[in-house]
Amino acid sequence: MKINSQLLEKYVNGKCSKEEIAVIELWLENNKDIPNVLSEEELQFESDLMWGDISKNIKPSKQKKKAYKKLISYASVACVALFIGLITFQFFLKTPFTTYETLVGETKRIQLDDGSVIHMNASSVLLVSKEFSKKNREVSLNGEAYFEIAKDSLHPFTITTKESKTTVLGTKFSLSAYPNERTYLTLNEGKVSFKSLEEPTNSKIVLPNQQVILSENYSITKKDVNANFYNSWTKNELFFNESLRNVFKDIERKYNVKIQVNNKSVLNQVYKGYHKSPTLENLLKKIGFVMKLKYKKNGDTIMIY
């Protein structure tokens, strides 16, 4: 029997069979020693994101209350073992969040109640608490966005991704956290605190024109950059200074195409270039010229050779 979100929802609502209850409680017992990698504050936020406001939406019997308390006691286990890495961070449909999404090739501008403005890049999901206010400024991102956060020294603005947590008071920065890709933040103005959810003691303070990158082993590296390049997509401009593997992923998202590469070794080569309002054809020609590559377009598929 596979432990999944549907089964755990049944467990919370007291609808599991005796066999299902036995399996779930054995799973919980076996996983109780998983380290709690979240602080108390982070665990509360993650629990809100993953589980929704269960107490407001469910009126459990005594048996359900017992199950609820036990399951909540393992919220960190569920967050770590089951839910971090989902495309969105919602667990129940009842979760009190407003969802904003962008399609492939689409960008979107959102203004929040506190005056903050968020520019979403293609193929991104942003969750904003329905209780978002000047006192509660918490959002969750899967994808890429450029943030212009209204200043409020008393009420931090928090952005949670599948692997990181960023806390700001009032600043401008870009944050990229696409699934199965590196997470990185580039700061334009102000100051931010950036840390790994897996290793919360591993954190960095980021200053203007600095970039932090979260690696697969949860270490954080910091380097100096020109921050304006990294939000150029908000002005329909493209800046690249990375491997062709990542360049091609960006092109696929922006132009809604599929790129296939015959010689996989070229994917590790670094391409650096700046393009202002490029068409797909012009972009491919310039990359091909610099990297000595050829391409062939067949409908929505591009062959690189």
Automatic annotation (TrEMBL):
Keywords: Membrane, Transmembrane, Transmembrane helix. Residues 99-192 form the FecR protein domain. The keyword Transmembrane applies. The chain crosses the membrane at residues 71-93. It holds the Pfam family FecR. Residues 239-304 form the Protein FecR C-terminal domain. The keyword Transmembrane helix applies. This is FecR family protein. It comes from Flavivirga aquimarina.
